[in-house]
Amino acid sequence: MTDINAKEYQVYDAKDKVLGRLASIVAKELLNGKKVAVINSDMAIISGDRKGIKAKYKTRLDIKEKANPEHSPYWPRRTDMLVKRVIRGMLPYKKKTTGKEAYENLRVFVGIPSAFKDIKPIEIKSKNPKEMYVGYITTKQLSESLGYSTK
Fold first, then answer.
1. What average pLDDT does the chain have?
2. Which helix (H) or strand (E) holds 11?
3. Residues contacting 52, CB < 8 A, separation 6+
4. 81 Cβ partners below 8 Å, 6+ apart?
5. How many CB atoms sit inside 10 A of residue 48's CB?
6. What residues does 108 pair with on adjacent strands?
7. Within 13 Å and on the Cβ side, how many CA atoms surround 95?
8. pTM of the model
9. Integer CA distances (angstroms), 68 to 60, 71, 72, 75, 128, in order
């Protein structure tokens, strides 16, 4: 992490933010050619029924191609990689080279790395999702239910 120049990045804090809304804003900034860092990825919120969300992601993990299982889509269990994969889904990653170039400018971290301690993150204006939604799950809880151990 010593090679990261924190002043080049726009920093977004995922703590208590709805993952889809955060991902769409970050994807738009990436497509505009900016470097983006997302911190506290383990505290992002996915709104909806907990059981339904867990079931949806477990079925994504179970998708395998019969002929060659290595060609199957890959969904990570770790929180930072899960957030990164959701953001990748909002980029034209497979169709255009601009999507791949934009994806290379994305950094996602669990917690706050030392390089970004002094930088104030960009605020996304929204209501408190914990008050808005009846059901929600954090990405940390989701990854633990998928089998990732944070110890």
1. 89
2. strand 9-13
3. none
4. 108
5. 14
6. 38
7. 4
8. 0.87
9. 17, 6, 8, 17, 44
pLDDT tens per residue across span 59-90: 988 888 888 888 878 888 899 999 999 999 99
Can you tell me which residue has the tokens 């709104």?
A: 47
Structure tokens at 51: 């059981």
Q: Which tokens hold the place of 126?
A: 């929204």
**Domain regions of the chain by residue span:** 6-145
**Residue 40 vs residues 86, 122, 143: alpha-carbon distances, Å:** 15, 13, 14
Exposure string of 105-128, with b = 16+ CB inside 10 Å and e = fewer, is bbbbbbeeeebbeeeebeeeeeee
Q: Please state the φ and ψ torsions of residue 130, each to the nearest 5 degrees.
A: -70, -25
**CATH top-level class of 6-145:** alpha beta
Q: What mean pLDDT do residues 24-41 have?
A: 96
Residue 61's Cβ-side half-sphere holds a number of Cα atoms within 13 Å equal to 16
